[in-house]
Amino acid sequence: ESRWADLPRRPMDAPPRALFIGRLVKFKGLDVLLRALERVPDLRLDIVGTGPEGPRLKTLTQALALADRVRFFGECPDDDLPRRMQEADFLVLPSVTVDEMFGLVVLEAMAAGRPVITSAVPTGVREVNVPGETGLEVPVHDIRSLAEALDALSRDPFRREKMGDAGRARVEKYFTRRLMAERHLTLYERVLAYNQSQPEG
Q1: Which residues does residue 67 pair with via DSSP β-bridges, in sequence order?
Q2: Minimal CA–CA distance to 133: which of 111, 156, 164, 108?
Q3: CA distances in angstroms from 188 to 8, 127, 174, 194, listed in the order given
Q4: DSSP state letters, 126-155
Q5: Residue 3 pLDDT grade (very low, low, confident, very high; cuts 50, 70, 90)
Q6: Tens digit of each residue's pLDDT (9 = 90 or more) over 63-86
Q7: Which whole-number Å values give the CA distances from 201 to 12, 194, 198, in the listed order?
Q8: How far apart are CA 150 and CA 5, in angstroms?
Q9: Cβ distance 37 to 143 under 8 Å?
Q10: Could you read off the pLDDT of 137-151 as tens digits, one per residue?
Q11: DSSP-based three-state secondary structure for 108
Q12: Which position among 130, 141, 155, 190 has the lowest Cβ density within 10 Å, counted as fewest Cβ atoms?
């Protein structure tokens, strides 16, 4: 989490910019994101990652006349990710299936003081983002709701700042590497103690 701690925020009067980081695969819901972006004309989007859906998503971007607002960065070296995060106002993870089990990038964005927009997939993603506090949550596959969330964060830099601060505080309280390691060790110890307490046979 320390690598994200000192990223400066963008100027409040800069054109709003959203960020997606991840594999370009169907379950990430990028087609939903692009169709939602079409409804928010002042918002720009950076897409970081590669995958089999890349060519189709670029074609869809052209078909929706979004080419002047969407940047595809491809695979970024790990060292470049803080720069991509620094250029964004908030992160979007619009996943559409339970294949999105946790979404580490959501924690990274929150550690960087960026609010997040996530979809309500019933997985660990919902344990990270607190809707209304650290970001916004939208129903899965819901283009209109996602567009409304994008528009809401795009228009309100003060809300973004408040949510970003709350996200950073949540990471520091619950999701540092040390805390997560300690919780895993505690869980393993409980499982081991339970197994040892069971009668053999």
Answers
A1: none
A2: 164
A3: 38, 20, 18, 10
A4: HHH--BTTTEEEE-TT-HHHHHHHHHHHHH
A5: confident
A6: 999 999 999 999 988 888 999 999
A7: 66, 15, 9
A8: 24
A9: no
A10: 999 999 999 999 999
A11: helix
A12: 190
